[in-house]
Amino acid sequence: MGLEHAVSSGWVFDEDLVFRQYYLGCLSQASYVIADRGTRRAVVVDPQRDVAQYVLDAGIAGLRIERVIETHVNADFVSGHLEVAAVTGAAISFSDAAAVEFPVEFPVEPLADNEILSLGSVTLEIRHAPGHTPESLCIVVCKSPLAAPWAVLTGDTLLIDNLGRPEVVDDTGWSTEGLACALYGSIRQRLLTLPDATRVFPAHGEGWVHGGNLLKGASSTIGEQRRANSGLAAMHEHEFVAAITEAANVVPWYSAHVANRNRRNRAVLEESASVRVMSWPEIDAAMVHGAIVLDTRGPHDFAAGHLEGSVNVSVGGRFAEMVAQVVCADADIMLIVDGSAAEVRNRLARIGFDRVMGVADGLGSVPSDRMRSTTRLNIAQLAALADVRLVDVGEPYEIEASGLVPNAVSLPLAALVTRIGELDPAVPTVVYCTGGHRSSTAASVMRACGFSLVHDVIGGVEAWSSCEGPVQRAAPV
Q1: Last residue of a domain, one of 241, 263, 285
Q2: Which end of the chain has the lower number of beta carbons within 10 A, N or C?
Q3: Rounded to an integer, what distance in angstroms lies between the CA atom of residue 466 and that of residue 13?
Q4: What is the mean pLDDT of the chain?
Q5: In which region does residue 352 sit, left (phi positive, over 0), alpha (psi from -120 to 50) or beta (all else)?
Q6: What is the DSSP string of 135-164?
Q7: Average pLDDT of the residues in 132-142
Q8: Can 433 be counted among the known catalytic residues?
C-alpha cells in the first residue's frame, strides 16, 4: 500500500519528501515529522510531550523514526524527545552550541552548523541561528541533494509576521541586547539568503504565551515574510536591537522550570496510565501538608459548589498556561474533573507539572462545612455596585484594546500570586477578565489566600461592552 493511502489527511507528499505538521492549539505549538518516501527514515522536530500520535502515524505509514531534533531548549513546553527516544530508540539532537550554553543530562548527537543530514533523497541542512536563544537552529528541507530548498523549519527564530524575542531564562552570560544582535545576524545571514519560494514552518502560532502579535496561519514563505514581516525590513543593527528589545515580552515565571525539565534526564510520561482515585480523607490529609486541589470544571459549576481552598482553572482553552500562572510547578496537585483525569494529567505534564497525586472520587463525601458556593455577578449587578475594588486580571494588550471598567485597576492573572499583597482582604473586591474564565480562577486564588469578600463577573469585558458600559483608556497603576 502506498504511503498516501496508508496515512490520514494532513500529510504532504512531494517527490520523495514526506512531511506533516502537528499543531497543538492550547499551547500554540507546532511539531513536525519529515521522512523520505524511499528509505522510510524519519525525524521528529520539536515534539510535544505526549508522543503517541507520532509513533502511531509512523507505524501506520511504515516510517522509522531515527532522530528527534530540537530547534532549541524550549522554555514554554516540555518537549517529548525523551518519550520518542524511549519508544523508538531514536537519537536526540540539539545544536552543538547547546552543549556549551545548556548542557543536558542525557545522550545527544550534537548538530554542527551547516551539517547535512541525509534521510535518503531528502536532506536536512542545519543552520545555527542564535537570537531567540543562544543555541537556536533552523532546518532547511530539500527534496533531493541538488534541489532548491523546499522549506525551512524556523523554530522560535522566525514566526508568521513576527520574530521570536530574545529569551534569557538562565544565567548563560547572554544579555537581551546580545541575543538581539545575534538575531539580527541570523535573520539576515541564515534565513533571508533562502529563495523567496521557500516555505516557512515556525514552532509557534497565534496565542503563543512568549509571542507578540502573531497572526493566524501555520506556514508562510520567505518571500511573503520579506514583504509582510516588519522584523525583516531593511534597518541598521542598532535600530533592530532597539526595536526588538523594546517589544520583548516578559518571560513567564515558569519558563526556567520548563527549560530545566528539558535539560534533565526526567521520567518519561506514561500518557495512557490511569490517575489514582483519592478518597476524601486522603485529600484532606494532603491539603494539610500543602497540596493544591485543582478544580477543572467550568466557572458556573465551580460557583455552585466547590471544596474550600480549591483553585478553579477550567480545562477548556489554554488550561496548562493558566495553571502555571497561579500554581507552583513543584506543588503536589489533586484533581477534580468532569471528564478524563488522564487527559488533564497529560496537559499539565506538557508544561512540566508532573506532581499529580490523584483525582477526587467526587465531592459527595466532602463534609458540608468544607463546601462553599459563590455568587457570580452579572453586568447589571456590577453596574449597581459602589465602594468595591474592581480588578481587571486581563493582559495589558487586552486592556489597551478594550479599556478598563471605570475605577478598575489592572493586575494580570500571571502577576496575581506575587502581587496579591497589594490588595486588601477587608475591602470587597470584584475581579473580571475578557470572557469570565480567568476571573473565576483569580477569585478562587484570592479566596484560597483569605479573601472572603470577592466575586467575579459573568462574561467579563465582552458582556460589559455588549451592554455599552463605559470604559476608561488610561490604566491606573
Answers
A1: 263
A2: C
A3: 47
A4: 91
A5: left
A6: T-EEEEEESSTTSPEEEEEEETTEETTEEP
A7: 96
A8: yes
Q: Which of 138, 433, 449, 467 is catalytic?
A: 433
Range name among 67-81, 156-170, 229-243, 308-322 with the lowest pLDDT average: 156-170
Residue ranges making up the domain that contains 107? 7-263
CA distance 64 to 119: 11
pLDDT in tens, 240-255: 999 888 866 666 778 8
Q: Quote the CA–CA distance of 199 and 151 in Å, as a whole number.
A: 4
Q: Does pLDDT of 196 surpass 50? A: yes
Q: How many CB atoms lie within 10 A of CB 110?
A: 15
- Following DSSP, what letter does each residue of 217-268 receive, concatenated? -S-EEHHHHHHH-GGGSS--HHHHHHHHHHTPPPPPTTHHHHHHHHHS-PPP
Cell numbers at 152, concatenated: 525551512
Give the per-residue pLDDT at 214: 46
Are 114 and 203 within one domain?
yes
Tell me which of 2-16, 290-304, 431-445 is least confident: 2-16
Same domain, 131 and 230: yes
What does residue 389 show for φ and ψ, rounded to 5 degrees? Answer: -95, 120
Q: CA angle at residue 348 from 373 to 414, to 5 degrees? A: 65
Residue 82 shares a structural domain with residue 112: yes
What's the domain count of the chain? 3
For the residues of 261-272, what is the DSSP string, one character each?
Answer: HHHS-PPPP-TT
d(Cα 434, Cα 30) in Å, to the nearest integer? 26
In the chain, what percentage of residues exceed pLDDT 90? 75
pTM of the model: 0.90
If asked whether residues 94 and 241 sit together in one domain, one would say yes
172 pLDDT more than 90:
no
- Kindly give, in sequence order, each residue whose CB lies less than 8 Å from that of residue 62, ignoring residues fewer than 6 positions away: 3, 6, 40
DSSP 111: B
Question: Residue with C-alpha cell 523554530?
Answer: 155
- Amino acid in position 214: L
Q: Give per-residue pLDDT as tens, 366-423.
A: 999 999 999 999 999 998 888 899 999 998 888 888 889 898 999 999 899 999 999 9
Closest CA to 414 of 248, 264, 210: 210
Helix (H, G, I), strand (E, B) or coil at 14: strand
Nearest 10 degrees: Cα torsion 298, 303, 305, 307: 80
Q: CA quadruple 141, 75, 260, 328: dihedral positive or negative? A: negative
- Does residue 206 or residue 240 have the better pLDDT? 240
Task: State yes or no: pLDDT of 477 exceeds 50.
Answer: no
**Integer Rg of the chain from CA:** 24
> Are 152 and 23 members of one domain?
yes
**Residue 357 phi, psi (nearest 5):** -75, -35
Strands 220-221 and 199-202: antiparallel
